[in-house]
Amino acid sequence: MHLILAKPRGFCAGVERAIQSVERALELFGSPVYVLNHIVHNAHVVRSLQEKGAVFVHNIEDVPDGSILLFSAHGVGPEQWDKAKERNLKVIDATCPLVDRVHRSAKKYAEQGYTIILIGDAGHDETIGTTGWAKGNVILVQNINEAETVEILDTDHIAYITQTTLSIEDYKKIVEVLRLRFPALQSPAKGNICYATTNRQKAVLTLAPRADIVIVVGDKESANSRRLVEIARGTGKSAHLVLDANEIQREWFKNVRNVLITSGASVPEEHVQGVIKFLSSIETCTLEEVCVASENVHFRLPEEIEKTK
Prior knowledge:
- The chain is α/β, with parallel strands linked by helices and 309 residues long.
- The protein has helices spanning 13-29, 43-52, 78-86, 97-111, 125-133, 144-149, 168-181, 195-207, 223-234, 269-282, 303-306; strands spanning 2-7, 33-36, 54-57, 68-71, 90-93, 115-119, 138-141, 158-162, 213-217, 238-242, 258-263, 286-291.
- The strands form 3 sheets. It has a 5-stranded parallel beta sheet. Strands 3-2-4-5 form a 4-stranded parallel beta sheet, with helices on both faces. A 3-stranded parallel beta sheet has the order 7-6-8, with helices on both faces.
- The longest helix has 17 residues, at 13-29.
- The radius of gyration is 21 Å and the shape is flat.
- The termini are far apart.
């Protein structure tokens, strides 16, 4: 088989920052460091940090008073900040700066009295956090059908913002419908979908036509990983989401000559290499890495831990 390895893939700058924030906090303060929800959506990353002393919780009430609490890359709403303050917690905010930019837009539009359409996935950590900053003036739209049917009372004061990990093509179609229905629709000067999401989707769209099958390494909880599978299937290709090589089924590769491999933005590279190693054990493989877009983005650590370095 011929393996086509997409680049860019794997960790984005926001994920790197979040993981490094937990590791740095453990170095500075020792265990336990509490983390609200999963730091990123990858079971391997979460398990690794647990082994180092991180404690993951779903409720701030489960964090002992006065402890260290880290907010994940997906961000939280203001009510979580209030709860942390009530419990005298030392907060380390590892919210991705690009997610934080969406929060600021939500807050600004809410303060100006706009009805905010949030394009995103119901129940996703990022969407929940962003909704909090919209202060009740928000309506969630998940797809074209909802964009076609959503009812807005004041159509002169309406704006949209988005989850950072949407499908670019789906997002464009949804916004097109909204703009036709609501001509006064406002939006942030810069788009909300992050560079890493854009680049990884572009790589799949560019390279999938060369492949018989697409393997996306990622967690099923990862929205950006699921999007890559959807996009690959949208090109007419067979595509599978696997956490690691253990989830691969040999029968997928019957009569397959060309395999495209990529990974979501929260996947350690070692698990991509594990997939390559497994496929190479099935039969002799050639490997070609193809760079579709260059990335050189890095974010500073949260000031709560950077200033102590």
